[in-house]
Amino acid sequence: MEKRAIELYSHYNREISIKVIPGHFATKHSHISHCIDMTKVKSQLNTAKAAAKFLADSFMGTPVDTILTFDRMKMVGAFMAEYLSASGINSRQDIAVLTPELMGDKMLLRDNFLPYVINSHVLLLTASATTGQTVNSGIEGIKYYGGAPVGAATVFGGDFKCDLPVVKLFGVEDIPGYTSYNPQDCPLCKKGVKVDAVVNSYGYSKIV
Fold first, then answer.
1. Closest by alpha carbon to 200, among 71, 32, 75?
2. Which of 34, 83, 157, 189 fits a disulfide with 56 by CB distance 3.0 to 4.6 angstroms?
3. pTM of this structure
């Protein structure tokens, strides 16, 4: 499967890249035509910093007290906090970076996290946001806990409705033929095409 992988570089910075593998993949919410491997962005220093710089630049004029990170994006979130607190409206702001627990599709914040969200401007950071379900659920959770969501940032995103700004490094338009289906409507499943791998925020596990 890895032999099919194609490295895709960002139009904004050649230091930022993801790997794209065509096939038939199952995620928590959908079946997709391409697996997006973001290990480099999440785990390597220079790539994470470059990604954080691009995403942070889009929020330099937005007040941010806290960044909530999903999908193992805490390294990128920490660099975003550093860039945001270095200049702009958030200059010298001591920005918190938190990773909430998830109970199904719902966000859970323990009591010790609440002071960083209540009456605070909160930015959401995810690795992937293709259907919008994670972003919109996260925004709903921030409001539930008394925070003021200011926007969302993601490495790979689709086109979906959101009342707040959503900034993405890569979009579905960057991957020709990329499709996402509800599992019950997946045409590959209906044709009897086996799922190549199960995908989540940690990566993918091949199905033999």
1. 71
2. 83
3. 0.91
